[in-house]
Design goal:
8-stranded mixed β-sheet, alpha/beta, Purple Acid Phosphatase, chain A, domain 2, globular, 7 helices, 5-stranded mixed β-sheet, 271 residues, single chain
């Protein structure tokens, strides 16, 4: 299969070490793209879950790690920006592991000259920063929803219901506090970007894939590879695209610097 050449791939919230990690789908996605840069924007390894005795490491997860090391060894620039679930690795910022460079955050200049702050984003989550036990409880609750969704997906397939439906995504859309949290998070990130004089930010953390514009700035969230299976790619001309893997191929979700396509998904179509 011919790989599509892009300039950069942005991934976050893979949560290696857990059963919820959809590493098989991620590997299928990566087979479609070759790139100059790969940016891993935090929560790549879920040390929180692993510390609770729930270590699960599948062959596909191991293959993903080997693939990243191989890409870095063959000349792709691979950056790892740790998140709150793998925050122990932040101590090694400024060093490299097998040609994978670890950074606390990074300013990426796209092919069109736009400058984006790359970060995980947990520093803009007041719960994670000041009430870690609440964040851990919320993380456990989220994992329960994801586990339950596995059985719901099996039931949908059994009764031949089309499409993918996400219980965790449904809860985020319907629970007012979750919606408010997402909006507040996005506003906080954009406020910080404005102070730095940059054009936008690319982050993860909240498992809510999104590209949106506000007051001349661009906010992008990679989503995750637990529930939504989404990533952001930078094309050779600097155009950013949020894409979703549906198990057989990628769907464009939104292209911020191009006219909307009738085949593109709306935000409401996301998990």
């Amino acid at each position: 299969m011919n790989m599509q050449q892009v300039r950069s791939i942005f991934l976050s919230d893979i949560h290696l070490g857990t059963k919820a990690c959809q590493a098989e789908h991620l590997l299928e996605f990566l087979k479609e793209y070759s790139s100059e840069h790969v940016f891993l924007l935090g929560d790549i390894v879920d040390l929180w879950s692993m510390s609770r005795g729930g270590v699960y490491w599948s062959p596909a997860q191991n293959t993903f790690v080997q693939k990243m090391l191989r890409r870095a060894r063959h000349g792709e620039k691979v950056f790892f920006i740790p998140g709150n679930h793998d925050e122990a690795i932040r101590e090694y910022a400024g060093t490299s592991f097998g040609d994978v460079m670890v950074q606390r955050e990074y300013i990426h200049t796209a092919a069109d000259g736009r400058r984006y702050l790359l970060l995980h984003g947990d520093e803009f989550d007041q719960v994670t920063r000041h009430h870690k036990w609440v964040a851990i409880l919320g993380d456990m609750s989220y994992n329960m929803l994801v586990d339950l969704n596995i059985y719901l997906s099996w039931l949908r397939r059994t009764f031949k219901r089309p499409g993918y439906w996400s219980l965790a995504g449904y809860a985020k859309r319907k629970v007012k506090t979750a919606v408010n949290f997402i909006f507040n998070f996005e506003d906080s990130v954009l406020h910080h970007v404005r102070e730095l004089g940059l054009d936008g930010a690319i982050c993860g953390h909240i498992h809510w894939p999104q590209i949106k514009h506000a007051d001349g700035l661009t906010y992008m969230n990679c989503g995750d590879w637990v529930d939504s299976c989404t990533a952001i790619v930078e094309h050779l001309d600097g155009r950013m695209e949020l894409i979703q893997w549906n198990g057989t191929r990628t769907h464009p979700v939104t292209s911020p610097h191009a006219a909307s396509s009738p085949n593109q998904l709306n935000q409401g179509d996301l998990p």
